[in-house]
Amino acid sequence: MIRYCVAFLLSIGLSVTHAAEWGVDQLMRTLADNGGGRVRFVETRYLAILEQPLTATGELVYIAPARLERHTETPVKETMVLDGDTLTLNREGKTHTLRLRDYPEVATLIDSIRATLAGDQQRLARSYALSVSGQASRWQLDLLPSDPGISKVVSRIRIGGRHGAVNEVEILQADGDRSVMSITPK
């Protein structure tokens, strides 16, 4: 569930404009101006226990500041909605709801992701070391967890973009599993 939340939260709503000066500050200022949006995704998950990777496709929606939706179409239809402190998963006619405050490590992780989407560098820096490489036309943001709770789950998050849009999110989990999400505008 955490793997889905991270990929989902990081992959929607991010856009970047061209700028002469480029770095963490510029990227965060650009992200702070974002109100949200809809994108298509293809996520490939590489799990040590499986010989072949798993692939999922669907749509992601971000409505600033706190609503995130992941509508998976394949291989199984499911919807995950994060609204404020509540995470709701709908799959095969069954609904599961949890409050993030009951899962402090997940809540800290999600708060960090929301900080990324909101361009809140100070809040993000509480849980991650940030670095940006490239330039506005092709950039990469690396998030390395400094929070011990997050580092138990995630080793690194890498977000790549070019020409004003995020086009890939890679998550390396602490156990060695990883996921790569390709993102395209709708």
Automatic annotation (TrEMBL):
<dbReference type="Pfam" id="PF19574">
    <property type="entry name" value="LolA_3"/>
</dbReference>
<keyword id="KW-0449">Lipoprotein</keyword>
<dbReference type="InterPro" id="IPR029046">
    <property type="entry name" value="LolA/LolB/LppX"/>
</dbReference>
<dbReference type="InterPro" id="IPR004564">
    <property type="entry name" value="OM_lipoprot_carrier_LolA-like"/>
</dbReference>
<keyword id="KW-0732">Signal</keyword>
<protein>
    <submittedName>
        <fullName>Outer membrane lipoprotein carrier protein LolA</fullName>
    </submittedName>
</protein>
<feature type="signal peptide">
    <location>
        <begin position="1"/>
        <end position="19"/>
    </location>
</feature>
